[in-house]
Specification:
It is a single chain. This protein is of the alpha+beta class. The protein has 2 domains: 117 residues, Diaminopimelate Epimerase, Chain A, domain 1; 58 residues, no CATH class. The chain is 25% helix and 32% strand. It contains 4 helices and 11 strands; from the N terminus they run ββαβββαββββαββα. The longest helix is centred in the middle third of the chain and has 13 residues. The radius of gyration is 19 Å and the shape is globular. The model has no long low-confidence stretch (mean pLDDT 86).
């Protein structure tokens, strides 16, 4: 399947245009399969893609679905920012306040044109927080290139899931943090 228009948005850019998360955004095609949607992120060279539903849901919200090259995501913050930015640019408005339906949840969104770009606000919903299992903890520490003594002793690592899980690993000191950054970048 060929997608006619895919826009890549550098979502969540930090001050002075640094960083960000390139996100593919396309109008969803009801004839497309989930495999077709997964292929868009890979073809666009982005880690994920947002698909804008063709019409409003019965509750007045706009459906948006998110995919990586391997799976559908129940929610995606960067993808929501990108989707709402694209929706705003399709209007002649300076601000768009609306509702989005994603992953079984409907929430308010606001996209606002600013001199430095588009600012998007939304409620990301509840964040599940849990302690990792001993095997998950060991894998987290190893993946970051840390030793068992590097995590801060008074605050154990946790997994936070605002949709996709994120690792929260407090470290004992700055040298451990710098080793982490070096390991991630290398």
């Amino acid at each position: 399947m060929s997608w006619r228009d895919v826009t890549v948005v550098d979502a969540c850019v930090r001050r002075y245009g640094r960083s960000g998360s390139p996100t593919a955004v396309a109008d969803d095609d009801p004839a497309a399969t989930d495999a077709d949607r997964r292929a868009v992120a890979a073809a666009a060279g982005t880690s994920h893609a947002a698909f804008l539903g063709p019409k409003r849901a019965p509750d007045g919200s706009w459906p948006v679905r998110f995919f990586t090259a391997t799976t559908e995501l129940p929610g995606c913050g960067h993808g929501t920012v990108a989707a709402q930015a694209v929706r705003l640019t399709r209007t002649a408005l300076g601000e768009l306040n609306d509702r989005q339906h994603t992953g079984g949840r409907t929430f308010d969104t606001a996209a606002i044109c600013r001199p430095a770009g588009i600012e998007v606000w939304f409620d990301q919903g509840p964040v599940a927080l849990r302690y990792p299992t001993p095997d998950e903890r060991a894998a987290m520490i190893a993946a970051l290139g840390l030793t068992a003594d590097d995590p801060h002793p008074s605050d154990a690592p946790r997994i936070a899931a605002p949709g996709a899980p994120r690792m929260l690993v407090p470290v004992h000191d700055r040298s451990a943090l710098l080793r982490c950054a070096h390991t991630s970048a290398g």
